[in-house]
Structure formats: structure tokens, C-alpha cells
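Q: Here's a chain of 195 amino acids. Please give me its 3D structure as C-alpha cells.
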Amino acid sequence: MVMQSLWGGPRETAKRWIVSEADCKCRIGRDIVLLDTPSASPPPRRRQEKGRMKKVLSEKGFTVLELVFAIVIVAILSGIYFSFMDSYRTARVGEQAAKVLMLAAHVQEDFFAKQHHYFDAEVSGNGGDAYLVTPDGAKTDVAVPPNVVLSLKTRGKEQTAFSGYAFFSGSKVLHKYDSETGKMTTVPRSQDDSG
């Protein structure tokens, strides 16, 4: 005796036509197992295929909602990534401006040791790298990278003190140096008239 379901396959899920209780041999959960049932006729083919299509679609692949959630998650993560990268780039460029200012301060101190006065300078690396040049025309090792502005201003009649600032043109911070204190400070550019 071979046990078959109503349509012949090995125990298919039954949301099928039930002929009568007398034709059913046993019930197991949602499956109906029948013996030879010559009087049982399957439902129309169209209805059976639609049921199968729904079952196949629900078991394989992704739904549109799942894809939308995946796209939203990827968009949020990429937004976070790009904001961190932008802040990292801004910090790195701000560090370059601070480094340029400290190198320029060392050049000023060396020049003061030889000439007994400081000099004024305005350098902007707009087209590429520009170099700080002393008043006697000597090119220094201070390279001002693109989009970094360096300004050195002397104070007093004898030019025995100077102040300087440097910033990246897209940055919101300004680095200041004062020769009398020997310290560099960082302030927001909106609070400064020279930036």
C-alpha cells in the first residue's frame, strides 16, 4: 500500500479539496494522507499554480520592503562615514596650517638672531606650494600648501615682536602665534577680524 496525497506527490501541504471523511485514511497536522481515491478530482490547474507561485515567491528572494530597509541602512552608514571623513580631512588640513605657522615662527626667530628684528610676510598657497621668503630674498624651507594662508606681522617701531596666523581657506579654525608669549592658540575664525 503506497500512501499518496490527494494529487500524488509525497505529502504536500493540504489546503486542498477534501472529498469526504470516508476517503481520508489519517490526518497529520495540516497534511492529509489518502489511499486510493478515484472519486477525488484535483482543483483547476490555475488555482494550484497560483498557490505554488505564492509559496515560491515567499520562500525565495527578497521582498521590496527588505530591499528598502537594506538601502536605508546603507545610506545611513555611508552618511556617517562621509561625515567622519570630512571632519578628519578638515582636522588634517588644520594641522598642516598649524605646522606651517610653527615653522614660520622658527624662521622668524632665526632671522631675529641674525638681523635683530622680525619681518612682515603674507603667503598664500593658492596655485600650489608657495614658500616663505625673507626680506633679503632668501627662500626658506617653509612650504605653504595649497589653500593655506600664512600671515606674519611685526609689532613695535623696532620690530622686536611679531604675531602671526595661519588657516586653511575651508576651515573654521584659525591658528595664532605670539612671539612675546611663544605660544600658539587656536580660535574659531568667525571671532577674528583677520581671517
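Q: Can you summarize the key feature?
A: Residues 33-37, 191-195 have pLDDT under 50 and may be disordered.
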